[in-house]
Amino acid sequence: MRTPLIAANWKMNKLVDEAVATVSALKPLVAGAAKAEIVVCPTFTALYAVGKALAGSNVALGAQNCYVKESGAFTGEISPQMLKDTGCAWVIIGHSERRQIFKEADALLNEKLKYALSQGLKVMFCIGETLEERQGGIMNDVLSRQVNLGLAGLAESDFANVAVAYEPVWAIGTGVTASPEQAEEAHAFVRGLVEAQFGAGIAQALRIQYGGSVKPDNAAELIAKPNVDGFLVGGAALKADSFAGIVSAVQ
Ligand code: PGA
Asked: How large is the average pLDDT for residues 210-237?
């Protein structure tokens, strides 16, 4: 039985006070949600304050990116050790915005994944095809490349601390959600890829989140699919009541 993992990806939104106010409103709304693991990923500047506000709650703290070194001359970067220092348990790696806007390639993302894991962070590793790739019939090739290169070299024991987030790029921030059938098809395909590379035991235990225009009113039909094991939520996670609505759809 895979415990659903529901994470808020706030992207580059919210100043510190607003971030703290949002999680302060969220905590009581999800306090009774025993059937899901919940994570909130604010911007770096809000991590420490949000981490303090979440202390003792059932909501964990996550970051949206990290680098592959502990410290040093890497202007503008942040290390897993620094994230842990703020209270982070999780980090998102390979979000399509990092891949597309910041040109992060599979090899770097694989390095980030392995380094973050080695430093004791849990990772939500994002994959997903663009509309062009889907329409061009190469969606499965793209997902295969992202999974095979992205997860390369992981040890069996690493998988306890990894979730994969399938986020079709055409569904992110567009209001267009993948249908439950489209999500299920992609998730089953991704699980198959993991099985081929790492075996059935690991593939069956791996949580595969869906991301892309998840809202309170489409969460229940998506989570009903056997291979959908939670969500990575952008826009609808910015407000406490809407994110809590998604969490309750999973209860
Ligand atoms: P969205 O974003 O929910 O706003 O579509 C999801 C994501 O980018 O993780």
From this structure: 97
Gap from CA of 63 to ligand 1 centroid (Å)? 15
Domain coordinates in residue numbering, the chain = 5-248
Query: For residue 73, how far is its CA from the centre of ligand 1 (angstroms)?
Result: 32
Reply yes or no on domain 5-248 having CATH 3.40.50.300. Answer: no
The set of catalytic residues is 95, 167
DSSP secondary structure letters along 144-171? HHHHHHHSTT--GGGGGGEEEEE--GGG
Segment 126-167, tens digit of pLDDT = 999 999 999 999 999 999 999 999 999 999 999 999 999 999
Calculate how far, in angstroms, residue 216's C-alpha sits from the geometric centre of ligand 1.
13
Question: Which amino acid residue places its CA nearest to atom 7 of ligand 1?
Answer: 234
Which residue stretches of 31-105 are H helix? 44-54, 80-85, 96-100
